[in-house]
Amino acid sequence: MASKITQESLDLWTRSDHYTNSFLLRPDPVLDAVVQNTMDKGVDHEIAVSPAQGKFLNLILLSIGAKRVLEVGSLGGYSAIWMACALPDDGEVVTLELDELHAQVIAENVKNAGLSSKVKVIVGPAHESMLAMQPEPQAPFDFVFIDADKESATKYFIEAKRLLRKGGVIIVDNVGQGWPVDPSNTQPGIEGARELLRYIKDDTEVEATVIHTVGAKGFDGFLYAICK
Ligand code: SAH
Ligand code: DHB
Ligand code: MG
What we know:
The chain is of the alpha/beta class. It is 42% helix and 22% strand. It has eight helices and seven strands, in the order αααβαβαβαβαβαββ. It has helices spanning 7-24, 29-40, 51-64, 78-84, 100-112, 126-131, 153-163, 188-201; strands at residues 68-72, 92-97, 119-123, 141-146, 164-172, 206-215, 218-227. A seven-stranded mixed β-sheet has the order 3-2-1-4-5-7-6, sandwiched between helices. Helix 2 (29-40) packs antiparallel against helix 5. The longest helix has 18 residues, at 7-24. Bound molecules: S-adenosyl-L-homocysteine (SAH), 3,4-dihydroxybenzoic acid and magnesium ion (MG).
């Protein structure tokens, strides 16, 4: 299916993304240093959210007045840093990461960005970390960003709901990765997205939509859900 998209059309979308960013995203030496350090340490920054998507997450947190954020899948902390920048001084991003090397790189990046007090990394399999967490009545999460192994999206979604406040928001990344989303596509990651869609269809506790995306990261999609 990917053969239906030419490299030329992907390049044009990347150019479009860079063009719009040149008006809407300010140069940010701190974020540039995060990206550079991540690549220097051999971590594949290409799979992080794009700058425009990072800002999108940041703006959503500002829109909902978020204070506490949970992230599932941190890589080098790029999305976590975009999100931490939207939080008040006493806000926090708790980010869950399996890989020890990634966790070390996040710690460096967060320190260099001056955000150590706002980003907490929990190392280990994210589902186990989530199961061990209790909803905090005084400080529930306002927002969860799910962006780890795509096969486990539904498991993460279920725990995210448990840990969120009423009215809280969940975004799941990569629900259009390896498109098309329909069952003609047998990649395991996209089956994870279809499992989540089937789960949400019968779930009376959320309202959700998917917005398919295109840009510097190719074709993909975000699922956006609100806990009722
Ligand atoms: N959110 C990041 C990108 C995350 S990439 C950003 O946009 O900057 C996906 C990450 O999920 C990788 O770092 C990978 O190591 C992690 N991951 C994969 N399986 C996991 C699991 N079972 N538990 C926790 N993290 C996992
Ligand atoms: C991959 C993971 C992501 O979270 C993403 O946004 C893009 C690619 C990957 O594992 O290939
Ligand atoms: Mg992703």
